[in-house]
Amino acid sequence: MTARMTGRETAYWLVKSEPEAFSWDDQLRAGAEPWSGVRNFAARNHLRAMRAGDQAFFYHSNQGREIVGIVEVVREAYPDPTAESGDWSAVDMRAVAALARPVTLAALKADPRFADLALLRQSRLSVLPVSAAHWAMICALGGGTG
Q1: Beta-strand relationship, 66-79 and 89-104
Q2: 3-141: what fold?
Q3: Does 57 have pLDDT greater than 50?
Q4: Looking at the predicted structure, is the pLDDT value of residue 1 above 60?
């Protein structure tokens, strides 16, 4: 059941991946793919808060440092199959669309409307919430999707 089917508002997120490890192109090829390997408690809790139908920006970290696409949660949190020990979670995501223009970290930092964006305040987390207002602004900066 998706967020829309339950009457719950869609929540928005940002997930980071190093493109040399798992890139947007890899996500496109994979279809639905586990978002696993998160080993930070705050980021893990964000994964656990995700619901089917929620959407996330796909962000290339380290190289590029830019939002390049949108993914959707298709399977809610379950035990992370890559964890050898500990209480870690994964979710499954599928690619929705590429941004027409990547939105760089530099552009977000230069725009005062994003001063309270979690990506700028908690830059080390790999999974972050995004407000509906910031989601709309970033989509606009990215020229829509597709």
Answers
A1: antiparallel
A2: ph1033 like fold (3.10.590)
A3: yes
A4: no
| In contact, 81 and 90? CB cutoff 8 Å | yes
Q: How far apart are CA 108 and CA 115, in angstroms?
A: 8
50 has pLDDT over 90: yes
User: How far is Cα 134 from Cα 36, in angstroms, rounded to an integer?
Assistant: 25
Q: Which amino acid is it at 126?
A: S
Which of helix, strand or coil describes residue 14? strand
Q: How far is CA 117 from the centre of its chain?
A: 13
The first and second tokens of residue 8, run together, are: 């719950």
Domain ranges of the chain: 3-141
C-alpha distances (whole Å) from 59 to each of 16, 24, 54, 126 are 5, 8, 16, 9
Residue type, 34: P
